[in-house]
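quick one before i forget lol
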Amino acid sequence: MAFNYIIPVITAIPSGYQCDLVLPLDAIGARLIDGEGNVVIRRRVYCEGELLDSQETQVAFEGGICKQPLLNRFTAKITRDDGVTSAGYLETAILSLDGDEIFSNHMPPGFYAILSTDGKKSVFTDGSLKFASPEIIGQIAKFGRYVDTYPIVHLDRDRDYGESLFCINPFKRGVLVQILGSNGRSIKRTRVEPMSALIVPLNELLGREDCRWTGRVHLSATNRLVVFTVKHSLSDPTLINDLEHMDAFRAEPSHMSSLQWLRQRVGKFLSNRGFMPFRVS
């Protein structure tokens, strides 16, 4: 099976931070069926429904090697025309130039972005698929909703530990979000507008008389979102320590037979080489 695109990747850009991204060109070249082809790398930066920046770079591959490696780096910072800095996101898409099916695998290679700003810690963050995630397709088919979870939330007033959920809606329809804590508390249902990012503090899961809470959070939404958990200072949420993706609540069985595991491994091996003679289940 061949493709004319690689699934777009969504990267979170917190308020006040600069995002620097360099793609693994060798991994992109390895996805080309013959190691050759003309590829378009498209980057788009969105904030509050507005396209703030867009860049398209054409690169050629020969023998799996990019001939223009110096065109790879991209830098973005979310600043609107009025000077206000808000949270947003970067969408990275990789396409064939002429629409030809030149990729043997449409899953993107793994890569990290660096988030940095003056006087604060720099943070590495990976991206998440915009669509076509098998786990999420399965869960929505099973439950009728998008469901994410995270098992290690830690809020502490004395140690100044805070945490938020960075919710990104890269689609053209608004999404309603409900967040529950394992302590029985919940956060008021909120809406993530189209082509926008919303940071939801988890402070409400910490009771007024409580100094500390550790537990799990459960997020459900009316449609697919891209969600990250942000660990930061409780008193100053702009001081970020870590930014990680959430864990999709899986609908599929947690165990499989050895024969099914072997079939999937063989199918993946063949698919990565552009050959798919049968459907793998």
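fyi The mean pLDDT is 89.
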